[in-house]
Amino acid sequence: MKIVIIDYGAGNIQSIKFAIQRLGYQAILSNNPEEIKAADKVIFPGVGEASSAMQKLKDSGLDLLISELKQPVLGICLGMQLMCNHTQEGDTKGLGIFDVDVVRFNKDVKVPQIGWNQIEALDSPLFNGINENEYIYLVHSYYAPVTEDTVAQTKYGVTYSTALQKNNFYGTQFHPEKSSVAGERILENFLKLKSRN
Question: What is the pTM of this model?
Answer without folding.
Answer: 0.96
